């Protein structure tokens, strides 16, 4: 089975959305991802909020600024999606 075939058959998407602010979207997304990771699932979180609250749930802002933020712009998004993915290990 090819990797593409495997992904099409086994990958699931969960979107946490609501038009109103302050209803817990970030909290639900972060905790759901943490729980699924703890259960052994591979997780990809995409934080599209300009405030980056979901990102900062997992990465300290100063670490982001010094180690990860370089070239993480909208322009770079279109040039290389993979540059936005970085590993995070769940430590229980």
UniProtKB/TrEMBL annotation:
<dbReference type="InterPro" id="IPR050678">
    <property type="entry name" value="DNA_Partitioning_ATPase"/>
</dbReference>
<dbReference type="InterPro" id="IPR025669">
    <property type="entry name" value="AAA_dom"/>
</dbReference>
<dbReference type="Pfam" id="PF13614">
    <property type="entry name" value="AAA_31"/>
</dbReference>
<protein>
    <recommendedName>
        <fullName>AAA domain-containing protein</fullName>
    </recommendedName>
</protein>
<dbReference type="InterPro" id="IPR027417">
    <property type="entry name" value="P-loop_NTPase"/>
</dbReference>
<feature type="domain" description="AAA">
    <location>
        <begin position="11"/>
        <end position="59"/>
    </location>
</feature>
């Amino acid at each position: 089975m090819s990797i593409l075939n495997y992904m099409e058959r086994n990958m699931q998407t969960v979107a946490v959305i609501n038009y109103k602010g302050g209803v817990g979207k970030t909290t639900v997304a972060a905790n759901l991802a943490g729980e699924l990771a703890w259960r052994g699932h591979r997780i990809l979180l995409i934080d599209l909020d300009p405030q980056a609250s979901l990102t900062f749930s997992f990465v300290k802002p100063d670490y982001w600024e010094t180690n990860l933020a370089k070239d993480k712009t909208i322009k770079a998004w279109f040039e290389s999606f993979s540059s936005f993915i970085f590993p995070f290990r769940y430590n229980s």
